[in-house]
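Troubleshooting: if your tokenizer reports a length mismatch, compare against these two reference records.
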Amino acid sequence: MIDIHPAGARHAVIWLHGLGDSGAGLAPLVEALALPADLPVRHLLPDAPERPITINMGYKMRGWYDIRSFDDPADRAVEAHVRESADRIAALLSQLVAEGFAPGNIVLAGFSQGGVIASFTALRHPAPLAGLLCMSTYLAAPEQLVEEMSEAARALPICYMHGIYDDVVPLSMGWDARQQLEAAGLTLAWHEYPMRHEICRPQLGDIRTWLLARLLP
């Protein structure tokens, strides 16, 4: 795990990468945000475990969960793996709190698979977090959201971002996630960009603006 921990940091962002990537793969994003020097923020970029991924012929790669097929939503994110990974991130949140970071000063962010785990964790976390940022992603086990969602999640600032031309996680899956969250009584900011399954330059500015609104005192 990459842990960028500037002196005096009272805020933290946990960044969760996509399938086949690593924490190091998201590190350039953190640098590109160029957050103000007078706002020291701790950035944690954990690595998913290596596991066989069915859709990739069973090859082992870093993945927060297996994807068995793209046809059935239940096979798109193996729930047992999702819960296992969410428990790991919840433990990381608890570790930060034990080190003195208030839950209200911690943002969970994720891209693709990482966004699935970020949302699954944040929406069930018992304490109010600073925010949830999800990029090019979807929801796992949405039919269980209303039953399992924490009371704290009702006031959670949420931002979803998606590429119009995404050919890995189609835009329709992002729309579905938005509708499922709104049906659960949640409010979220929504951004679309003329891009594929990636992070584009205009999006960086929106991420920066949203993060600063969550992190500034």
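Reference record two:
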Amino acid sequence: MKKIRLILVALFIVLGIELSTNNIQAHASSSTTTPKSLRGTWYKYTGSGKFSTIKITKHSLTYNGTVYSPSKSGSHKLKVSKWGSWYSFNKGSSTSNLGQFKTEKRLIKGSYKKSLVRYGNIGTYYVFTHHKYHHDYSFKVLD
């Protein structure tokens, strides 16, 4: 019984040393470079033949004509952060928080196509596509 207890104590000491020497990586990172998977021009049908547009380049984001980039100042200065599979633009800024984005395959016109999903209010997801489809593919998960 003493040998088992001694082995367990030694094991806990080794695990403690191992955990204390490992670098712990943060779950969120921040930069001014947008991920390649989100880049491009994205459209969402808003009705009456009109579209909401998001254009994402390496160092800028244009949302309905408003440009956000690292070279701008104030609320138009671009900041990109990641949490899990979601990317946030200007997170923490109450005046220019652009929301959370990720890409995923969505069923559009009978086949799965790459789309940009923007998380909106509680349970609302806005779906943007690379092509102008005259249909809004946005959805809600909570009603």
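Descriptive notes for reference record two:
- Residues 21-29 have pLDDT under 50 and may be disordered.
- The chain is about 15% helix and 45% strand.
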